[in-house]
What we know:
The protein is α+β, with helices and mostly antiparallel strands. The chain contains 24 helices and 13 strands. The chain has a 5-stranded mixed beta sheet.
Amino acid sequence: MDFELNxxxxxxxxxxxxxxxxxKTMLDKGASExxxxxxxxxxxxxxxxxxxxxxxxIYMKQDNELNIPFSQYLTKETAKGNKAAxxxxxxxxxxxxxxxxxxxxxxxxxxxxxxxxxGKAFYPSDLSKDELISILKEMIKxxxxxxxxxxxxxxxxxxxxxxxxxxxxxxxxFKEEFNKIADELEEASKTSENKDFNEYLILQxxxxxxxDPMKDAYADKKWAQLxxxxxxxxxxxxxxxxxxxxSVVEDAELxxxxxxxxxxxxxxxxxxxxxxxVNKKGTMDLLKVKKYLPLMAENMPLKDKYEQNISxxxxxxxxxxxxxIVSLRGDEGSYRGGxxxxxxxxxxxxxxxxxxxGRRNVYHRQVRTSNTPEAVERRKKRLNAxxxxxxxxxxxxxxxxxxxxxxxxxxxxxxxxxxxxxGKYKNIIEENKADMGSLALLDCLVNANxxxxxEKKQILVTFAANAFLKAKxxxxxxxxxxxxMQTYYxxxxxxxxxxxxxMIDIDIDKMIPTARKMLTxxxxxxxxxxxxxxxxxxxxYFKWTKEFDIMxxxxxxxxxxxxxxxxxxxxxxxxxx
Length: 577
């Protein structure tokens, strides 16, 4: 199959230059974290890395039906000496697909004529939202409600079936890859020296081989209990890519039909895999915060109106790990304008939470802010150009990590269920909740001596200093849309402003009350379980004003980077041996 490349050689050379394509390097093959492992764990890690590599294949199949043939084409053309194909392959491997997005929210389309679908490759490429809604209505009217439930579930690929649609479970659609992953997990369980971890690997392998959601639930439940392990392995199932499933609730007639048949549309899971080595010291630091989760739950707004994942009386259902990253593959490793620095899983839609399972926070050490001389110099330039000098001494890159810890913990707080009704706005609103909770609960954590007053100010200032983006994001970019919403809200409330010298000014005393106010509104939207309420709230605060333009212009001048690539030297070494 022949393809036509979309980007000119000049554009490709620019986007692959080191100033525009930043490198995020994970553990090196000579890292002490690896060298200090026992022989059994080293052997297990090799199998885990090989298992992770299959996630790239699955993710590419989920993302775009042309990804794999296009990747093969680029490899062949590169071997022939085609320079444009070689550079295109670099960008393809970085964003792991034909279509990505850069830090300026511009689409990076590598194949001429390619168009992004809201349903990615989870649905037929020629299926529109209107046709999907029409077919689902007809299927319900003709008694095919069970198939509709499968179509709108998180673990199926949807295909045409004459005039209707049918759902194919992931264990069937990705049978070859899932079985190969399962094989590697079983091999890893034979040499890994942690009994709990091995039990999890076996459960996860079983879940990959069988079309049984309860198998996933048992694996998730065991994974969320892991605390004292040496190795880290996660199959993440996040839902930010699929914008089609949630859109069906926008049709009032279909939404009523779904409610009458007890069908809740749940966006499709994108598959990613994380492999790492647990950092004991970093994990101990995280666990110091864990005992205060009930206190945080008790201080959440409107706490009497909903059930939370964390009890306000006791918590034994959340584990935490700070991890040195060996491999990020699939959805975990697709660098599209950014990369995940931490996760709180499983998400509320997962079955494990209904059988007594908990959640687990995992933090990515190598993805966090770098302290290389180059990174330090970039931060210095940014502060000098954007933040009033009186706040410079309160800016602390480590405070961003403290903020992230709060963010991930707050994902376990607030309404435990019902947010799927918010459709395509669910993720934007949930990410907003996590951010605002991280700030709103700072005073109670200071009173508990988790943070000092000075550290609290550092968190607030660092958050405000990082509040502006290089460009207005698309609605599909949940994390970035939530950033614009927050910043606009804080400007409106007078907590953040751009002064007469076009510098960020902060009213520290207004920061926490503003966060608390926004957090309360967000929870009210979640409690409404109303798509229109979610849409109204996002539209009200997703506004790009002159303040954003001023800061965006500065940020583009300071930082040329458009995208990035994950570099995994230890993983690559283990894959070849």
